[in-house]
Amino acid sequence: MKHRARKRFGQNFLNNPGIINRMVETIAPRAEDNIVEIGPGLGALTRPLLERCGRLQAVELDRDLPAKLRAHCAGAGELLIHEGDALTFSFSKLRAGDQRLRVVGNLPYNISTPLIFHLLEDIDAIEDMHFTLQKEVVDRLAAAPHTKAYGRLSVIVQYYCQVDSLFTIPPGAFRPVPKVDSAFVRLKPRRGIERMQVSDEALFARVVTQAFSQRRKTLRNTLKGLASESQLKASAIDPGARAEQIDLAGFIRLADALAVRADTGA
User: Which residues are involved in binding S-adenosyl-L-methionine (predicted)?
Assistant: First the structure.
């Protein structure tokens, strides 16, 4: 199948059979799974997944690709393609009763972060996610406090999901060849007691975003107008610390303290 990769869609197509097989084995699709692939492209991952699970849905923005994808996957199983932008697509509508979605994809690097945040909006409908991403992004997703990679993306995604960086993928596994290394990552939504609950998730996101807005400044400065020094101290957070020094539990404590203040009008 000939198709010129489009830069505006961030297209880099996987074409390494060994890497593709490793991805499929890691995902471990089952016949009963409700799998949704984002950006299936030419179907390098789509067909082997479809052969294993028998039915698969895909979301594809490039209108030139669905016909080629259907031809490539003919005879492998039932393929339903939703033509549209994954950044605005409602993934929760693909949930079938109590059966959550297993989301997979070689995500366009130019939209990977906003797309992950978009998927978090439908987190209750998702069983797990397996993505190929720029390695730098995977490093940020899995980063721990006190590291340069740790930031807003790390804190918010780790609040919702367990992050497992699985393996690195060299540039030569794609066509056209990207200028960066890639990595395969699993995001497993936390349920019940696995997830530390914050009372106001919107406020939590605001606190984290504002705290990391100026990484070199201390929290007393970045959170000015949102949290006072006394509130930081009451949450066991040093006002002289920087955002990268605060773990997930610390951000949750602070957001909960601010939510109580808002509720009481204090």
Answer: 12, 14, 39, 60, 85, 106
